[in-house]
Each structure stands twice: as C-alpha cells, then as structure tokens.
Amino acid sequence: MTEGKPTLAVVGATGVVGLSLLSLLPTRDDMWGEIRPIASGRSVGRRVSILGKDVVVRELNPASFDGVDVVVMAVPADVSAQWSPIAVGAGAVVIDNSGHFTAQPDVPLVVPEINPDAARQPPAGIIASPSAATLMMVGALHSLHSSWQLTSVVATTFQAVTDAGVSGALRLYDETMELAGNQSVGQSPGDVRRMLSDLGESPFPAPVAFNVIPWVGQEADDGSTDSEETVREELRSLLRVAHLPVAVTCVQVPVVRTHSVSVHATFATDTDRNDAVRVLTESSNSVVVLDDSAASLDDAWPTPVDVVGADPIFAGRVRRLEGFPNAIELFICADNLRKGSALNALQIAELTI
C-alpha cells in the first residue's frame, strides 16, 4: 500500500483489456496508490501510460504480488487459473476477467449495478467478472425483470473480433486488406476462403471479413458453444432465476470493437413498450436508451461505430410485437473492452476497498 492508499496490480497490462483498464483510470476517483502493470516475459520492459506517466511493465512471477491489495486478471483462463491462487496467497483480492472461476460456488459473480455487496469479502479471495456478452444485456434484463418477472430470454449476440484479443483485430485487418479492392469477391462459393488461404492460422473457425460466423468459443453440450453456455449460466446467476429458459446464439462479426445483441425477452404479465423504455431509462443500470421513432435514422438506435469507446450500454429498437403481448424486443450495443470487460473489473476493484 502506497501513501495510505491501496495498490492495484493489472496482470495482462499490455493486452487489449489491460490497456483499456489503464486508460479508464483518469476518469475514475483517485483511490489507488501504486498501480502496477504486470505481463508475461515477452512484454517485460515495455512501458505503458498510467495517469500520464510511463511505467515499466513487470514480469509475472510470485514476487509481482508483494504489497498488492487488489489484482485484476486480464488474461486467458489458463493463466488466471495458475496465478490467481498465488495472488490470493500473497494477500490480494483477485478480480478475474477470464471466466475460469465463474462456476465455482465460493466465487461471487459481480456486476456493481446489480449485486455490489457480493464484492465485499469474497470467501475464496476471488471475484468473477462476467463475459462481455453477458454484461451488455444483463443490466437491461435485470431492470425489466424487476418490473415484470422474466420467464424466458432468446438472444443473438454479434461479437466484435477483439473478443479474441489483439490477434482477433489483426486478423480482421489482414483479411480486409487482402480482399479490399476486388469487387467480385464474395459472389461465388469458396472465393473468400481461397483468397485468404495464404494468411496463415486464424483465431476464428472461418473467414471473418465479409462474413459472419455463428460460432464463438469451443464446442459444449447440446450443440451449444462454451460461450453460449457461459451467457446462459451467468444470466441465471445474476438475475437469480436458477432455471430461467435462456437460448443464446453467439455470432462473430467483422466489427473491431463493440458487441451487439438482439434480445427477445418474455415476461409473466403483459408488457408495454413505453413502460419498458421508462424502466430502462430510470433504473440504475448503466443503460442509455436511444429509441426515438421521430428522430432521423442516424439517431434512432445504437450501432457499434457510434458507441465505441463509451462507458454506458446503449439500448434501442425497443418494441412489443403483435402476437407477443408478454414480450419485449430490444437491440443493445456496448463496448466489449470497456463496460464489457475493463470497466466492470475496475468498478469491482473499487468496491473491494
């Protein structure tokens, strides 16, 4: 602890989530003493900007956590699995962004707008931050659930390539450069794959440029992916409805940054579109409603390119369709590297102290 203030360590400080977290610090309250950037050996010696100062990145090892009060793990699941217990053993509280600990009963899953008390004194010393796909919709669903009681959720996510980290963004850029300028591309079966065959291994199971991929993550049970299972279980946990029917399809799209989701939410009683907009607007859920039918199309609903880099979650296309009196449709966008990852983790870190 430095000058009476706690020390925050960011493991994975040179990755897309870690850098996003560091960039958020000037917008938050001044509550940290030392902020310690940590990364794997290949990043040691690099400098990152922290509150206007260049700070040298430390190597990840047991000594990294000496004197640290809170650790944010902005790393893959296998890295967090290895190093989170070591950080806890050194006396730190760990906020895990990888999803590795989500299913463990002694690890609370926290969204500060929904269950802030769960961040205080976690039994195992570890707190889980939900996936970006969950975070972009759970605030809106929680607000609506409080008014009408959810009975089912059907959601299709449209996930940006930075979900796969730096390699995802670089792959999209490389594929786009390879295909750009060819006005015949994408008009015959297999032509995109052939043009990209020399680019080497991809983090995605199919071309992502000029394409959408209805598969994010690894194969799981019942034909789902582990990403889809994660969203289902995280929504049930945070909404406190253990057996809520949730159908999720996660889709990879050629967007660099900012996830979107189309949601069909069914409730126990009749709903009203205007009441839904009011509830979403008035609740403390980090949701900004952009849904003005009288506005121009540019301002009528959110899109990723319009909300990227923003902290709130943006909801639009709020409507109740004929034949579905108990359901609300909405379209949501949220920056997957801010509230979808770094900001939620940082907010949890603040709650712990």
UniProtKB/TrEMBL annotation:
Q: Which domain of life is it from?
A: Bacteria
- Which keywords appear in this protein's UniProt record, sorted alphabetically? Membrane, Transmembrane, Transmembrane helix
Signal peptide (UniProt feature, chain positions):
none
Q: List the InterPro entries.
A: NAD(P)-bd_dom_sf (IPR036291), Semialdehyde_DH_NAD-bd (IPR000534), Semialdhyde_DH_dimer_dom (IPR012280)
**From the UniProt record, which GO molecular function terms apply?**
NAD binding; oxidoreductase activity, acting on the aldehyde or oxo group of donors, NAD or NADP as acceptor; protein dimerization activity
The Semialdehyde dehydrogenase NAD-binding domain extends over 7-122
Q: Does the keyword Cytoplasm apply?
A: no
Q: What residue ranges are annotated as transmembrane? A: 6-25
Q: Name its GO BP terms in alphabetical order.
A: amino acid biosynthetic process
Gene3D superfamilies per the UniProt record, alphabetical: Dihydrodipicolinate Reductase, domain 2, NAD(P)-binding Rossmann-like Domain
Task: Please give the family membership noted in the entry.
Answer: Belongs to the aspartate-semialdehyde dehydrogenase family.
Protein name, as recorded = Aspartate-semialdehyde dehydrogenase
Origin species, per record, is Flexivirga endophytica
